[in-house]
């Protein structure tokens, strides 16, 4: 079956346009970013009853976006490392905690 150059170009442009509708997700970057937010919130005193569901919700979201292998092998290790690091630091200042809690609340309400 022969495909013309014009048809091939249209197919490539169509898939490029469709790809622009979905932002690129790099699991390890998302894990580190979300881990810093959750870790800082924990360090500022946000209870496990609030942070646990957020971690679970974002894990499910990552599973849906990139699949189990990338979630388990890339996203979760970075998430856990960032949370462990942030919670190992001394409690942030009041102004830093206010920013951290605002960022956590934004993550918490993310759909």
List its salient traits.
111 residues, mainly alpha, 5 helices, signal
Architecture overview:
This protein has helices at 5-21, 27-43, 48-66, 68-88, 94-108. It has one domain. It has 111 residues and is mainly alpha-helical. 80% of the residues lie in helices and 0% in strands. It is elongated. Helix 2 runs parallel beside helix 4. The chain contains 5 helices and no strands. The chain starts with a helix and ends with a helix.
Strand and helix layout:
Layout: H1 5-21, H2 27-43, H3 48-66, H4 68-88, H5 94-108
Helix pairs in contact: 2-3, 2-4, 2-5, 3-4
The number of domains is 1
Oligomer class:
single chain
- N-C termini distance: 45 Å
Number of DSSP-assigned strands: 0
User: What structural class do helix, strand and pairing data support?
Assistant: mainly alpha
Helix share bin: over 70%
| Largest sheet features | none
Shape: elongated
Q: Provide a count of the helices.
A: 5
What is the succession of H and E elements? HHHHH
Strand content is under 5%
Which parts are unreliable, with pLDDT below 50 for 5 consecutive residues or more? Answer: none
The value of Rg in angstroms is 19 Å
Question: Mean pLDDT across all residues, rounded?
Answer: 88
